[in-house]
Each structure stands twice: as C-alpha cells, then as structure tokens.
Amino acid sequence: MPGAAHTIRRPNVKIALLGQFGSGNFGNDGSLEAMVGVLKRECPSPDLICICSNPDVVRERLGIEAISISATAPRSRLFSVLDRVALGVPGKLRTLLAAWYGCKGVDAVIIPGTGILDDFQDHAFGWPYVLLRWCVAARLRGASLALVSIGAGPIHGRLSRWFLTRAAKLSTYRSYRDDRSRSFMSSIGVKVSNDPVYPDLAFSLPSPESVTAGPPTICLGLMTYCGWRKGAPQSRSTFDEYLDKIEVLVGGLVAKGWRVRLLGGDASDIEALEATLERVDRSGELRQQGIITAPQHCSLMGIKSLISDCDAVIATRFHNVVCALSMMKPTLSIGYADKNDVVLERAGLGSYCHHIETFEPKDILSGLDDLLAEREQVVWHISRFLQEAQADLSEQEEHLYAMLGLVPAPAKRTHPSVENAHCSL
Question: What is the enclosing helix (H) or strand (E) of 168?
Fold first, then answer.
C-alpha cells in the first residue's frame, strides 16, 4: 500500500465521506448509507462530514453534516480577470485551495464504494479532476485516505486516466469490489499486490422480506443509456435503438403472461421509463389493468421493496443487480459494463449476462425461461454467495474499525484474493 501505514488513535476522529452523493444515483447514495451504517455500528455518534454533489439531500436523508464538492475559496474581481487571461488555470488552483479548506480538521477521508474510478458519461475536468483535487487536499492536510470496495474501469480518456490514477495512488488504503477492478488498476500502473477485494458495500444494507405471493411479475430495470462517451454524436440513436429493443422485450413478456414492473436506478432514468410507457402503452390500458406498472422509487431500499414480490429481475444498472441478488431473486443482466457480469458470475449466474448495445430481446426471453426452470438451484447459489459476501464485508468492517482506532487490529486475512492485505491507514 502506498505511503506509510498508521492507525489513528484519537478519542474523537473526524471522518469525511467523499463521493457523488445526493445527485440522484440510488446506488451511490446506497453506498454512502451503507458506510454510515458501518461506522455507526462501532461508534454510535461518529463525527462525520460528507463531501458530495448535493449536501442538502444528504443532510435531510442521513442527518449528517455535508459540504459541496464544488465548494469555492474567496475570490476577488482581480482574480476573475486573471483567471480569464490565464485560461482558467488560476480557477483550477482555487478549487484545490477550496478543497484544502474543506478538509480542515479531518483525520480520515473515506470514499465508500461506487464505480468511482471510471469515466462513464464524464470528461477529465468533471469527476476525475474533482476526485484528484480532494485526494490531494486530504493528503496535504495529513488525513488518511481510504478507497473502500470501489469499482474501477474502464477509463477511456487519457487525461481522465491520469487524474484517476494519481488519485488512487494517493490513498493509504484501497480495496476493490471485484477482481476485475483490481486487475484494471494494475493494468494502468497502480500497484495492487496489497489491495484486498471485498464485495460492494450495498450488500451490507438491510433487505425487506422476499415473497412471491402475487401474480407472476418480472421487474425490468431501465436506463437512459446514450453510450459511454458524454455528448457523443450517436448518443440519441444509441438511446433510440435501446428503446426499440426494450419495446419488443416488454411486448414479449406481456405476451407470455407476465406483469412487468419498470424500475430505474437514477433520477435520469425517468426519461427511459416515460419513453417506454409511451411506446408500449400509449393508451394507458395496460397500466389500468396493472399489467405494466412504473412505481415511484428513489432509493435502493425502495427498489428492494418493489423487487420483493417479483419472480425474477432483468437489470441494467449495477446496483439494481445488487438489490436483486440481495433479495435472492433470479437475475438477468443487460449491462453497459462488465461489472454486472462479474458479480453475477460470482453468484453462479454468469451465463445470464448480456450487453446493452448488443442484446436481443428473444435471447432475454429464452434466458428468462431457462433461469426460472432452474429456480431452486439458482436461489441456492445466490444464498451461498450472499453468505460469503456478508462474511467478507464483516471482515472489512473490522479492518476499518482498527485503522480508525476504534478496535484492535484483526488477524491478517488469508483469503487468496486478498492475501497479504495491508489494512492500516
């Protein structure tokens, strides 16, 4: 692990939680909620501050102090003129100074989960630069920096890759949510020999009871998918092609006698839900009959509640897959990155993975038939996976508590994927 390891030994440790929280992504917010829960289990009243996209949302939902990732330092009219003349470079330095102010008094900065190290629908001076400047500020303040159960890759932009690689190298602790993420970081020059692999943090969230007492129902997770690159010329056509296939898929499910419950995973997915409803049920008749529904939801717990009484889930967003597995539901993936494939492979469902740009509705329909024909075995595999995931996450919690000085350090792990893990900040 880069940097000298040290354990914080203070009676009142101040911890900052950094990420894209409060912006409408249910998975990101669920990861934050999971980490807050982890910290409160050992320390009921932790001194927390969240550095995030929308502080107001975080304060309201979790009741913790929060500041904006775009917090700014004081400026003058002269500075504004200099910034324009110098092509914005002084402004970038000013945002670094603002981050340095924001990290005042912080002992540890934790980045809890999420696919933090990729550039999906982003550009270099979006989140990649934001992450780097806060990581630099944290280390300049002498704070420890932990990236916990993070997802990584792909990173297509050269400058984005440089920013994110440097941010990762500044950390004093890194763990990845899957071997794929760990391998990706190794491939771009980050030393990962001491970086452990632990499951996604959202697997530690509570789940409602799972039942299948209602009419036969499939939950179909949608996404406003416009390709990987933000603002690409083919964005609209990519989305339209996706909707064309979803329209056929929904029609096929209804023809087979299924009720279809549409889900999102981000506030932006409302566009995909509304467009799908317009295509498959313009008259509203199917909704009146309860054959197609699109209930409102705004959290992972909300998604789990909607999944609780369904027979199977067809998911696109990663944390919809996590929710489906957490509820022990047979799950197919129509993913935009292979992170879905990796977690489903671990749960014994690797043969039920498709890519969002190449999937065929007929393959999803036939795969669903195969999946449900093996329901008992599928649920057994998922149950075993969840038991292992819970054990692994509990182990990581002990390491987190130890490096924050809350409990003595646990024995070193011997699991082959994380052998020789170094877990002190």
Answer: helix 158-169
Q: Which two tokens stand for residue 385?
A: 């996976």
* Nearest one of 221, 178, 204, 208 to 386, comparing CA atoms: 204
DSSP tag of 266: B
Q: Which residues pair with 261 in a beta bridge?
A: 219, 293
- The share of the chain scoring above pLDDT 70, in percent, equals 88
Least confident among 71-75, 210-214, 298-302, 337-341: 71-75
Average pLDDT, the chain: 90
The 3-class SS string of 284-343 reads CHHHHCCCEECCCCCCHHHHHHHHCCCCEEEECCHHHHHHHHHCCCCEEEEECCCHHHHH
CATH number of 14-195: 3.40.50.2000
Any idea what DSSP says for residue 359? -
Q: How far apart are CA 386 and CA 378, in angstroms?
A: 12
Q: Which residue has the tokens 């190449």?
A: 358
Regarding the domain delimited by 217-383, which CATH topology (the fold level of the hierarchy) does it fall under?
A: Rossmann fold (3.40.50)
Q: What are the boundaries of each domain within the chain?
A: 14-195, 217-383
Give the model's pLDDT for residue 78. Answer: 57
pLDDT, tens only, 296-341:
999 999 999 999 999 999 999 999 999 999 999 999 999 999 999 9
What angle separates helix 339-346 from helix 318-326, to the nearest 10 degrees? 20
Matching residue, tokens 């092509």: 87
How high is the pLDDT of residue 211?
80
Q: What is the layout of strands, in order, in the sheet containing 108-112?
A: 65-68, 47-52, 14-18, 108-112, 144-150, 173-176
- For residue 83, is pLDDT > 60? no
pLDDT in the model for residue 77: 64
**C-beta separation of 7 from 424 below 8 A:** yes
* Single-letter residue type at 248: V
